[in-house]
Write the structure tokens for this entry.
Amino acid sequence: MSKVVGVVIRRFQINRRVIGPVPLKDRDVARFRYGRETLVARGGEGEVFRQKQAGYTMAVKRPRGDVPPQSIGGCMVDLSDYYVRRDGQVLVEVSHPNIVTCYAVWEQNGKMHVIQEYVGPNLFKQVERWGKGSKLPLPQALFIVREVALALEYIHNRRMAHADIKPENILIDHLFERDEWPVVKVIDFALSRRPGQRLSVESDTRMYGTPNYMDEDRLFYEAPEKKHDVYALGIILFELLTGQAVVEGSRPSPAKALLSIRELKAKIQKAELPGEAIRGLILRMTRRLGIIPDGPSLVRYIDENIGDLLQNTRGLSASLNRYFREVRP
Ligand SMILES: Nc1ncnc2c1ncn2[C@@H]1O[C@H](COP(=O)(O)OP(=O)(O)O)[C@@H](O)[C@H]1O
Ligand SMILES: [Mg+2]
């Protein structure tokens, strides 16, 4: 038994260039159920496959089949389906050039499937390709962070927190290997919610999300807020510029993450960074110096200080400066 829950036709956008609507019909959606697919990645909850149908390459996300249901409040809950479902429900409601476009969601054998545009590798994989420990030049790192900040601005203005900002949830089609700006898009809205809200499957004594990108109060089970998204992006900016992980390990314990976070301010102050303005930005994003509470204020801060932030870089900085000021209002 399967049924199409909703079909959304959106414009396919690369940065601000619209390259045409994708005329996905029910018939095309049906093809995705049986088409030939290639595994792209297996995340904590979902597995993502690439498929080409009706001339378009799409990513299809569905729940992992191997996570046993858990007992929550006396009910058996399939958490991977729960999270993929939430992701799809949020994605069909949002539309922004820096958020992955969702074309359709459907239910098959009681499990949610989400069809999205196929963007490219995630930021973690892209940086890994450059070599472990490599540093991204400042203009490139700032470009990526500002693109994500634009997505956060949009999300936060809709009274939502993403709650799982990390390199694996940011897609980038290329890492400045071509003579054009890369496409940067935020994915995975499984944990997103109204700021401060708890999801029905969450308890207030368990941690949800990724400890490597969580501030101290979230490690102590505080429900996600907008400021936590800005914090996570601050950690990403630090990591892109230094090539060092703030919290090592792919699934560190909260206790281990906490130890690293307690040393964060000293680490940022000691790190070799391209300029004091960028150090100030990272300290503010990670709440060690003043605070940038949400996406709108982060975009404003970067734009108002763009001259200082880029002062040590030449070449790309002039065109980036123009891009920030003129092309992307
Ligand atoms: N639209 C997409 N285009 C390309 N790759 C994607 C897309 N969506 C997800 N992926 C890949 O699949 C991985 C897991 O997807 P995600 O939605 O974050 O699932 P999970 O909820 O399991 O973390 C991502 O890190 C990325 O590598
Ligand atoms: Mg993810």
In short: The chain has two domains: 2-117, 123-327. The chain is about 35% helix and 20% strand. Confidence is low (pLDDT under 50) at residues 1-21.
